[in-house]
Amino acid sequence: MQLTLDDAKTKELLTEVLVELMQQKRSVFYELILDALEEVGLANAILEGEDSEFVQEDDIRALLER
Q1: pLDDT value at residue 40
Q2: Which of 10, 18, 34, 66, by CA, is between 20 and 30 Å from 26?
Q3: What is the pLDDT of residues 3-55, one digit of tens each?
């Protein structure tokens, strides 16, 4: 027995599976999305930091100790 699926049917089935998973495992997907957003934020901060001038470690420590 051979099963064949066209692209439209495959997309439809995958969509159904993902929607069902998101409904049943909402907290898992919430954590995945939150982690992804944090990674994007960190990457953006790194890129932004590459374009700014260097700050001495003592200056940072002084600000943190306030």
Answers
A1: 96
A2: 10
A3: 777 888 899 999 999 899 888 988 888 898 999 999 999 999 999 888 888 88
Is residue 39 within 8 Å of 31, Cβ to Cβ?
A: no
- H/E element holding 50? helix 26-50
**Dist CA 21 CA 38 (whole Å):** 22
Residues comprising the chain, all counted = 66
CA distance 36 to 45: 14
CA distance 15 to 21: 10
